[in-house]
Amino acid sequence: MLDVRNLTKSYGGPSGRRVLDGIDLRVQPGEYVSIVGESGVGKSTLLNLVAGLDVPDSGEVRLEEHDLAQMDENARTLVRRSRMGFVFQAFHLLPHLSVARNVGLPLALNGQSGATATERVRELLQAVGLENRAESLPRELSGGEMQRVAVARALVHRPALVLADEPTGNLDPDNAAMILEILRAQIKRDNAAGVLVTHSMNAAATTDLTYELTRSGLQARAPRTPGS
Fold first, then answer.
1. Assigned fold of 2-220
2. Residue 13, pLDDT above cutoff 70
């Protein structure tokens, strides 16, 4: 599903700082992985490259049959719109749209409308426990509710790849746990590939496998033993 090979990225020209060097990452359908690491090691840079928001100096970023590193910006935008879902620390909801219309936005952008789209939005709102808030505006929701809307929006079009960047950073522990549970359950249900970037080891523990990004590269961490 996602196959990253020998990825390198520098900033500041030929003599600039190399942020990523020789990064490899493979995520299969239905697999949910996390990436942890200290600030400044390149986690956000890696996520931006995987999302096609930036291009590497060298290497491959393959999502299904697409090599994002070899595509122009317009082509990458179409792949992001149709095959990726994003959950960020900030909710990025459109304030003038209802909850249902916020969730349905990816469907509209992909040309899907009518009864099928309406039913899909209803399914996702039910999955995140917000079916009774469909007509509410974002300003009428709590932080935890807004993040649940963001999760529903990221998954409504059944993306092949779900990218989550510190999705619980602004939430209290109870809401954070709820978001992480919903995110994992929906990734598994849709057989998507999921990548979570986080500083929280508790959040990372909800994924199938955790990678640590350091100046030396990306390495899988040993699984936690029960009680550790």
1. Rossmann fold (3.40.50)
2. no
